[in-house]
Amino acid sequence: MKILTASQIREADKYTIENEPVSSISLMERASTQCLNWLLNKYEGKEPFFKIFVGPGNNGGDGLAIARLLSDNGFSVIVFILKLSGKYSNDFSKNLERLKALQEVKIKELNEEKPFPELNPGDVVIDALFGTGLSRPITGFAANLINYLNEFAGEIISVDVPSGLSSEGVLPKEGSIIRANYTLTFQFPKLSFLFPENQNYVGDWIVLDIELHKEFIDSVKTPYFFIELQEIKERLSLRKKFSHKGTFGHGLIIAGSYGMIGAAILATKAALRAGVGLITTHIPRYGYNILQTSIPEALISIDRSDIIYTESPEMDQYSAIGIGPGLDKKTNSQKALKELLESAKVPLVIDADALNMISMNKEWYGLIPGNTILTPHPREFERLVGKTENSIERIKKQLEFSKKYKVYIVLKGAHTTISTPDKRLFFNSSGNPGMATAGSGDVLTGIITSLLAQGYTQEDACLIGVYLHGLAGDFALDTQSQESMIASDLIENIGKAYKLIHQ
To answer: How many of the other CB atoms lie within 10 Å of CB of 499?
Structure first.
């Protein structure tokens, strides 16, 4: 799914109106009907009192249409119009006239001379004050209203975007923003919904399809994308009847040090579960018995050191290499890593301590082979590129680093971002907070290395791997809680994730 800017969404609306064709008021009705359908499902069997707060623009027009539709479906509704200049958009005015025809719906104006309305337990507040057209922080009387609504203990549902929140950026330095429990957004997720700074304002967000013109959506250019199940289905290959283990590649995992052999075990198991034909794991000598016992399916390469990584095996037989989990950062390990960067001829995945060693030796950046995949968590990313003030700055630096060094970056988080050398950015949609646990990243390294070894492109390996990893975490919740989940649970659910994708 593409992620568009506010101006591009306005262009999409305009194109749909002109080419479907459909009137703007009818398109607003379509959007409001989708909101109604969600509300009917959410509050089925309940009798909430909807208190709808509307501003003077088209976002307020959506709120007026929703009020009318809710009343038509038997709900109690009252509308509060924020009166600022007394000027309203055309579609707002049309929907206001339609609403006035319903005697069941009370309509009240809010201004500085009147007290704010009482909010009671059982009320549901719908925020339709300001939408994506807002270009400045909300201050003054409107800000006072938003601050008052934010004190409400019940549910707040925002239409398209929480009032006061930019659809593309991070928090403004001043102004008030609605703290929504749910945001019902139209056609596309907004970029700002995917930033951690904004989670307390957006709440749970739901994309409602309002059937904007497919021709425009297909043709519009954007660097931002949201990964969904259907795209992964299209990228994932089906196995053929006469395939054999050699068909699916031979991966090499370089991982583990004294006290951290578990990282090597997790990455290796994940690589096998993700479908690689053969996997060899290179570990310090002390890890031999542990790994041989834990994973009889794996081949093992033994380092000359008992406790750390100091050398790489001959690499001619491998189709992809993953390096970093639990590796430590000793001087001899740094030397071995530098030699690997200079000599590797197959696709690389670099994670964890391998990334940290590169950050310690920034003159090595130019040694990273083109199309290598880097999989940092936020702190590792900061060590690579420096500190960032907010998510906008973070994704900018991520894209710039990918372009400059011709690498793919998988920056792990709630919506893991994958940047490409041609400056596109993908946000992942699968996964849950239970995956914030030790070893989760080692599992991801194993999965992506496995996919590369099987012959997937770097882009496909990143997108499929990240989505599969998150989906396995979602399946793990069938038997675990978010608190109790461990990295091994992800490995055990990779098969279920694959089954869903193949359906």
So the answer is: 10
Contact 220, 13 (CB under 8 A): no
- The predicted pLDDT at position 171 comes to 67
For 187-198, give the DSSP string: SS--GGGGSGGG
The letter for the amino acid at 468 is: L
H helix intervals, 241-287: 261-273
- CA gap 368, 376 in Å, rounded: 15
pTM over 0.90: yes
Number of H helices, E strands in the chain: 18, 17
Cα first-last separation, the chain? 20
H or E element that contains 420: none
Integer Cα distance of 216 and 27 in angstroms: 16
Q: How far, CA to CA in Å, does 31 sit from each of 63, 95, 184, 192?
A: 10, 13, 10, 21
Dihedrals φ, ψ of 287, to 5°? -90, -5
User: Measuring CA to CA, which residue among 143, 153, 156, 149 is closest to residue 112?
Assistant: 143
Say if residues 327 and 254 touch (Cβ distance below 8 Å): yes
pLDDT at 172 exceeding the cut of 80: no
Strand partners, 81: 54, 109
Contact 330, 301 (CB under 8 A): no
Chain mean position to CA 177: 22
